[in-house]
Write a structure and sequence with these properties.
The protein has 15 helices and 20 strands. It is of the alpha+beta class. The strands form five sheets. It has a seven-stranded antiparallel sheet, sandwiched between helices. The chain has a five-stranded antiparallel sheet with strand order 5-6-10-8-9. Helix 9 packs across helix 11. The longest helix has 20 residues. The protein binds flavin-adenine dinucleotide.
Length: about 475
Amino acid sequence: MLTDKEVLAALSGILKPEQVLWSAASMRAYDCDAYPVAHAKPQAVAIPETTEEVAKIVRWCVENEIPYVARGAGTGLSGGAIAALGGIVISTKRMTRILEIDIPNRRLKAQSGAVNRNLSQAVASHGLHFAPDPSSQSVSTLGGNIAENSGGPHTLKYGVTAQHILGVTLVTPEGEVVQFQSGVPGYDFVGLIVGSEGTLGIVTEAWVKLIPLPSTVRTALVAFANVRTAVKAVSNIIAAGVTPAALEMIDKGILHALKAAFGLTYHPDAQAVLLIECDGDPASVDREMTEALAICSDALEINVAETETERLRLWTARKKGIGAMGRLAPSIVTHDGVIPRSKLPETLDFIYTLADKKGLNVANIFHAGDGNLHPCFYFDDRDPQQLRSVGEAGEEILRHCVAAGGSITGEHGVGVEKMEFMRVMYSAESLAAQAAAKRIFNSGSLCNPCKVLPDQLGCIELKRGTP
Ligand SMILES: Cc1cc2nc3c(=O)[nH]c(=O)nc-3n(C[C@H](O)[C@H](O)[C@H](O)COP(=O)(O)OP(=O)(O)OC[C@H]3O[C@@H](n4cnc5c(N)ncnc54)[C@H](O)[C@@H]3O)c2cc1C
């Protein structure tokens, strides 16, 4: 095992000294992501600028048997970017360049540290955009989006990140540089790498698909007197054959947080609001929005944006909802599960009752059209009892989702948080097949250990829950 001094000296030889962080304050800053209950301090943080620099660091880690993990903006919600067994965090924060814009072929190549929103901004004047839009898009990176196969409010119509990645440059867990393309003969390794949570290597560059911006967008915020009516409207809208571009639900807890944080007010009797957005050509937008709003006939209030400024104001509730919760408690754990949309009413009832039973505060803001729940528990993580209860509540919710025919994660990944819960979703044979697929790229335990698959060497202390 190398000492901190030896690690620092070696990394400063590979990179410039200012590309290596090692102070106690920096290690504290990098010891967790946006899943605030899992912490692990790295030995150092390397900040490469090119694929070749990433490859050199990885090769050095392999030679010296030091674990390493890629990190983008650290907004992941399942502990995926923590250095679970110590070692080196390889940050892509200086790999932010857009390398090529190919308008005729509607594609763009960028380094993996490029911020999601910057990709769309770079091609907006050509009437194009990169469709995946996680709510963290003002900071989260292309590499993080690829690793987590991120979704977002517009996933309902445009799909998740996997549908928008054309090719990647990958530094393999051994430090070789390889390139993969999707839609070409041979095995689809792009499909395997997207969503692999940084366990199959480090993506350094990617080609992404660009799609036209819709000519018309209409947005409405609809207030309901109770959550059940709101979520029933969601399943009725989809059942009627309307596919809005976005169909999001925000409950009273979040509305309360928005008032506390930003002074935003909504209908005083609203227990839930739905944000409905339709886009496309003017005629289909009119038809879809009319149908969707007709289904919301028992709403308390319907606000349809007349201007772009009003539209952005309606979106504030969704975009700032989780941030606003910072006012309510020192810590937030945002759980992530999927259920069939028809099970939304009973599952929401289950979540509120569970929180009451455990004496916890919960608020919900989620991609209702996809059945992708995000119960946010806000609490004081200095209180061990609250911490335990939040973990237990999360486990019960995940079991409920799987029993309802859904999944343990919709878009936040497995990370360290849900490794053990992979057993709830998959048979032993299925997990063994996934482990075999991982070994094609990652035959050791250095590249992002203790993530995704259970039963990894040295990861016992990171186990959560016992399915
Ligand atoms: C307020 C808020 C809202 C959010 N909303 C959404 C949402 O709507 N939809 C959604 O899907 N997610 C959402 N998230 C979760 C998170 O933003 C996404 O998972 C995002 O894609 C993570 O990107 P990042 O750059 O922060 O990655 P990080 O958190 O730094 O890393 C996440 C994982 O990706 C790996 N990784 C990072 N870069 C690379 C790379 N170059 N190569 C290989 N692996 C890499 C890491 O090792 C880690 O396992 C939200 C998070 C927050 C805090």
